[in-house]
Every structure is written in structure tokens, then in C-alpha cells.
Amino acid sequence: MSPTDRPDRLRILIGCDTFAPDVNGAARFAERLAAGLVERGHEVHIVAPGTRYRRTRPKVEIIEGQPMTVHRLPSLRWLPHDWLRFVWPWRSKHYARQVLSRVRPDVVHIQSHIVIGRGLARIARQRRIPIVATNHVMAENILDFTVMPPFVDKLVLKLAWDDAERTFKMARAVTTPTRRAAEFLERTIDLSGVIPVSCGIDRRNYRPDATPRTEHRILSVGRLTSEKRIDVTLRAIAALDPSIRVRFDIVGGGDQRKHLEQLVQKLGLQDRVHFLGKIDEDQLVDAYSRASVFVISSIAELQSIATMEAMASGLPVIAADAVALPHLVHHGENGYLFEPDNHAELAARLTEVLTAEPEEWLRMQRASLDGVLVHDITRTLDTFEALYRGEPIPE
């Protein structure tokens, strides 16, 4: 029996406020989830912002090597941000009616309660279509890109969370990437029973390298935005003993790049810091394989796919002790945690890893590889299939 003939095949509509070609954790999760579901024989439709303010016909796009139908909605770029696009909120329910009438899905899975997901949830509820909701949002992700006074930001944020509560209560199930992220959401709004479901990665895509490194290469992967705190890592590198020669590779683009380049000049790190920008998947896998240690100073991670990719590549990880990162990095096992924004402590942790004996580095490498097993994409797909069908989720 072919996958398309399966009696348990589902027609799934995934609503995203960010999706390919965007490069961020929420988009990457939606892409991998959708591709995995298609590979399992399901029919997947995506609703996402278009690349211009123009309505286009749905078309099949190849995402993560799998074909799926993508419905691109007219969108505008949010000028304070370097790539973010949005659909007019007052049009979201209109578009939702059109897409839901065309697709007639068995289930709707929203990746955000902000605009597209908000509209889809309300119309799907009216039509008695089951809804699953996943939250990828942290307050820091929103406030960094407003152009309003702080007191207005706080008011807007409260109204947004109140609306999020109304949206999430329409869902059959609400998920977040980790238990800490679930607890954060339950503390923030009047909601209980949030289910932690890892974003998941396909470990087969990465190439752990156990051979001794010929140079100390520090790697950071992610958007160059203020909540990622790349400046903390730069200051830590400047504080290292000069005898520890390092190369710091920064993968990703963002609105903070110019500021960070200026800080590199100020700290005299021009010969040690390399901005690689946005790179393709093969180049990213190579960057992980070459690195000696992965560093993430972010204070706003609900999971961090990049950290899981680093672990799947067999890297020790040094991470800020914030939000969900301690869920991945176990202090003294597969790396170390440091106090957020404390560049001196980060420098000390870097020194520990970079000067470790080969046997100690291999021990941390094995711990990373063991720790990422639970985040295999297969378990993630099993869980969401159960949620879509209204079945008990696997342990």
C-alpha cells in the first residue's frame, strides 16, 4: 500500500507566522515537522506570509526534501526587523476562511498565536475542526523589535498574552518545546496541561568527529539579535588568556551584525572573529564538525534547535543558565552553564573546555551524543500524530 492510500492518512494544515525562507528556530521546526509528516504519508498544507504584498495561488514547494502545498498570504515587512513579515491582523480570519474552505483539513496545527494562527484558530473552532497549538514565543523576542516607549510595550505585551490565552484555550492540546517552556507559559497565562514536545532533529544529518582538533574553534549559530547576547561571547573571548588562540565562527544574520562588528573592532578581535552570515545546510554541518565547542549566550530560548544540532555533532556546549538551555546542557556532563550576561564566567568555562585533556573532551562529546537521543525527530512525529488524532500520546 502506498503512503497516499493509507486509511489513517491525515490532511494537516499548519499555520505559521514565520516559515521558509526565514531562518529561525520556529521556522525550522515547522519545516522539519511538515517534511516528516509528508514522509510518513500525510497530506500537509502550510499557511505562511508571502514574500510580497500580493495574493498568489497555492503551490507545491519542496521543503526539507519533501513536497507540500504552501498557501502564501499577502504580507508586509516589519521595518524594525531585518526579515520579519506579517499579515494584516484584521485580514487573518478572512484568509483563514478561504484556506480552510479550500483545504478542508482533518486538523489545524498553529505555530503562533500572533496573526495567522490566531485567525485560523477562530475559524477552525467555528467549523469544529480540531486545533493543536505550539508556542515558540518569548517576551524578549517581541519587545526587541517594537518602536514604542517601554510603558506602551508593557501594555501591548499584556494584551497580547491575554489574547494568547483565548487562542490557546480553543485548542485540543497546547505544546511547547520543553518542560521549562511549558511552565513558563502556564505561569504567564491561565492555562494548565501544556505538553512539552521536543522540536526534534534528525541525528543522521550530522557528522560527529572524534579526532583531535588542530585549532580551537568556537561556534555560535543563530540570529544576530540582542536577546542572543553574542556580545557577551565576544567579551569572554577578549578576556581569555592570550596563550589560548581561538577562532570564533558566527553563523547567522540579523539586525545586530553592524553593532557586533564594531564591538569586534573595539575589542581588537579582528583576527579571531569571523562572521559567516547565512550559510546552506551542508556548510552548517561542516561548521559543526570543525568546531571544538559550541557557545550560546542567549537568554530567550524555549528550546534551541542549534544547541541540539551541536549536540548531535558531538560538541561540548557552554550555555547561559536561562529558560530552557539547562534542559539540554547538563553542567559538568556535556558542557557547562554560566550566569547570563557574565562574560568573565563564560571565559572561565571556555578555558576549561579548550584546555581539557583529550579524554575529558571526548567524555563531554559522548555525553552530548547521548543527551540528544531523546530529541530524535521520530519521537516528535509520533507525539504530534497522536495529538492530531486525539489519541493518548506515547511515553
TrEMBL record:
Domain of life: Bacteria
Keyword NAD: no
Signal sequence annotation: none
Ranges where the Glycosyl transferase family domain occurs: 211-359
Ranges of residues in domain Glycosyltransferase subfamily 4-like N-terminal: 23-202
Keywords for the protein's UniProt record, in alphabetical order: Glycosyltransferase, Transferase
A Pfam match: Glyco_transf_4
InterPro entries, alphabetized: Glyco_trans_1, Glyco_trans_4-like_N, Glycosyltransferase_grp1
Protein name, UniProt field: D-inositol 3-phosphate glycosyltransferase
